[in-house]
Design goal:
The chain has 210 residues and is an all-alpha fold. It has one domain (28-209). Helices cover 78% and strands 0% of the residues. The chain has helices at 13-31, 35-56, 70-95, 101-125, 133-158, 162-181, 185-209. α6 (162-181) packs antiparallel against α7. It is elongated and about 70 Å long. The two termini are 42 Å apart.
Length: 210
């Protein structure tokens, strides 16, 4: 008699575990948001926005491109708002397909970003008027980039995501280097190494999902 599927011998324990791991990995890929969508908008925002700052507020007050002072100060926040909207939509769509502790973690993590940036903005606003223009700019840029690096590292620790933790550590490192070198150069370093790092993180994450 020709055997049917029910007559097939059961998988040995090693094969069963391998099958479970493959299915778990496949499910994770299906549910995870595209890393390019999560990182590239921020990477582009940093690359373009901080480049504008460098071109208008260069080292030692040098102006590489003559543009209104308000323009780079408006471009960077607008780009970051657009990046936040895009990644929020992508994260919301991915989160709508799952429920439980992971969803709550994601919501709390997102709220932490909003609260932290709001608190820092209020704090920095109290000191901007007593600092020179270049030092005030360094305070805002360096503080916000430092906060981003720490939150990325915290997110990597929460979700056991080594790539996200490394990105946060890299962001923190280049921010410290830029602050030590001084105003103007900080913007260039964050634009190239920070924005480029996020673009690279999105590409690496996407390749790993494939």
């Amino acid at each position: 008699m020709t055997p049917i599927d029910d007559d097939a011998p059961p998988l040995d324990p090693a094969e069963s575990l391998a099958l479970i791991e493959r299915e778990r990995a496949k499910l994770g890929r299906d549910l995870a948001p595209d890393p390019r969508v999560m990182f590239w908008p921020w990477g582009i925002a940093w690359l373009v926005g901080f480049t504008f700052l460098f071109l208008r507020f260069g080292p030692d007050g040098r102006v590489y491109v003559d543009m209104p002072a308000w323009l780079p100060l408006a471009v960077l926040p607008l780009l970051m708002i657009a990046a936040g909207i895009l990644t929020g939509i992508a994260g919301g769509r991915a989160g709508s397909r799952i429920s439980g502790p992971s969803t709550r973690q994601g919501v709390m993590y997102g709220v932490s970003w909003s609260v932290a940036f709001t608190g820092f903005s209020i704090l920095f606003a109290q000191f901007s008027d007593i600092l020179s223009e270049d030092r005030a700019g360094l305070l805002w840029a360096g503080g916000m980039v430092a906060l981003t690096g720490v939150l990325h590292m915290a997110g990597g620790a929460v979700w056991n995501d080594r790539d996200l933790f490394v990105l946060g550590a890299w962001t923190s490192l280049i921010n410290i280097v830029g602050i030590l070198i001084g105003p103007g150069w900080h913007s260039l370093i964050v634009a190239v190494a920070g924005g480029g790092g996020m673009i690279a993180a999105g590409l690496i994450g996407w390749l790993k999902l494939r």
